[in-house]
């Protein structure tokens, strides 16, 4: 049985309570939706930030790792280079000691009996190189007598070999402290042949240096080209 007419106070209150309950329920559901969405957005943002920071940390780590590797390689290279320099210095010192000993022996030669024959051969070589009618021989003052005697013999051999004659002049301009030998010149000093024992030894040192290094220290792994008897060899 239906009823018409206005609602009384109790009915109005009941309807109001229903409406409040409905609105409250809608609000709670909306609040839950907002909270869920906020939690999702927070999780996404958190994951994004964590990923960005992880990438930044990884990038810094790789950068520091590369820096450490570069630093280690530089240190290693420096240590290797320093070691090589020490080895090269040691080898050079050893070679210099050999050459110093050779110089001493050459000076001893210039004071011995073999020096007379050496002078004759040195003068003959000067004459054959210059092929001049007039030659000046520079020598040590203390070798004056030896030079003149050796020159006479050398001139005779020079004539037998070349069929030419030459006149020799003497100048005692070399130091008595030198190892001896002669410097020949012609055309008023325009052409010279240095046949002092010091110069001959220097030429011999330059010629023998690669062979000495090979005999003393073995094959140089960093060297690809060697010259033997005027021929270039590729290793």
TrEMBL record:
Keywords: Ion transport, Transport
InterPro entries (alphabetical): ATPase_E_C, ATPase_V1_Esu
Molecular functions (GO terms): proton-transporting ATPase activity, rotational mechanism
Cellular compartments per GO CC: proton-transporting two-sector ATPase complex, catalytic domain
Family (UniProt): Belongs to the V-ATPase E subunit family.
PANTHER family: ATPASE H+-TRANSPORTING V1 SUBUNIT E1A-RELATED
Protein name listed in UniProt: V-type H+-transporting ATPase subunit E
Organism name: Kwoniella dejecticola CBS 10117
């Amino acid at each position: 049985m239906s009823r018409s007419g206005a609602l009384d106070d109790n009915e109005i209150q009941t309807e109001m309570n229903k409406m409040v309950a409905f609105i409250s329920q809608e609000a709670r559901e909306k609040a839950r939706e907002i909270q869920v969405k906020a939690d999702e957005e927070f999780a996404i943002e958190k994951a994004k930030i964590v990923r960005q920071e992880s990438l930044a940390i990884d990038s810094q780590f790789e950068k520091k790792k590369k820096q450490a590797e570069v630093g280690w390689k530089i240190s290693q290279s420096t240590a290797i280079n320093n070691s090589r320099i020490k080895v090269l210095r040691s080898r050079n010192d050893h070679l210099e000691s050999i050459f110093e000993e050779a110089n001493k022996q050459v000076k001893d030669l210039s004071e011995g009996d073999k020096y007379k024959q050496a002078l004759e051969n040195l003068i003959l070589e000067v004459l054959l190189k210059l092929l001049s009618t007039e030659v000046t021989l520079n020598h040590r003052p203390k070798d004056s007598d030896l030079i003149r005697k050796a020159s006479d013999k050398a001139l005779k051999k020079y004539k037998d070999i070349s069929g030419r004659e030459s006149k020799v002049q003497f100048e005692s301009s070399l130091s008595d402290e030198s190892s001896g030998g002669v410097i020949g010149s012609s055309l008023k000093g325009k052409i010279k042949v240095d046949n002092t024992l010091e110069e001959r030894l220097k030429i011999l040192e330059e010629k023998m240096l690669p062979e000495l290094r090979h005999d003393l220290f073995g094959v140089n792994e960093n060297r690809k080209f060697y010259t033997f008897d005027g021929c270039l060899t590729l290793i």
